[in-house]
Amino acid sequence: VLAAFDREVNNEVIRIIAAQLAEIGDQFDKEIQARVVNDLVQHFLNENLSGEEITRRMSEAVEGLARAIPSDMEQEKAMLVLTMVLTKKIVNKMPSLLRRVFSTSLNYISQQFHNYIVRLVSAVGQ
């Protein structure tokens, strides 16, 4: 019973966080220029680029966008949302890249934002 309760709480916490991030993402979506998306699409299409190189390019794009978007929110939250919005925009532009883009984005988020996500979940869960 306790495990089921924890799962329900975690699902509710995740829904709350997802709704908050989606709202921020909608705001950021309008700020991302097509050129940034097109450049990333070209990098993902380049079979000669390693996963590490593509992740580095994604990181550079996210960091550049985070600096360009005036925001009073935490830098980590802004960068996490920008990563997710870029992922969506790239896949919408070039659906055939879904697997490579999703994998790269997931790895990037895991590497860069793991601790932030843990803090976010525990803060909302309390």
TrEMBL record:
One of its GO terms (biological process) is positive regulation of release of cytochrome c from mitochondria. Pfam families: BID. Keywords: Apoptosis, Cytoplasm, Membrane, Mitochondrion, Mitochondrion outer membrane. The keyword Membrane applies. It is found in: Cytoplasm; Mitochondrion outer membrane. One of its GO terms (cellular component) is mitochondrial outer membrane. This is BH3-interacting domain death agonist. It comes from Halcyon senegalensis. The gene is Bid.
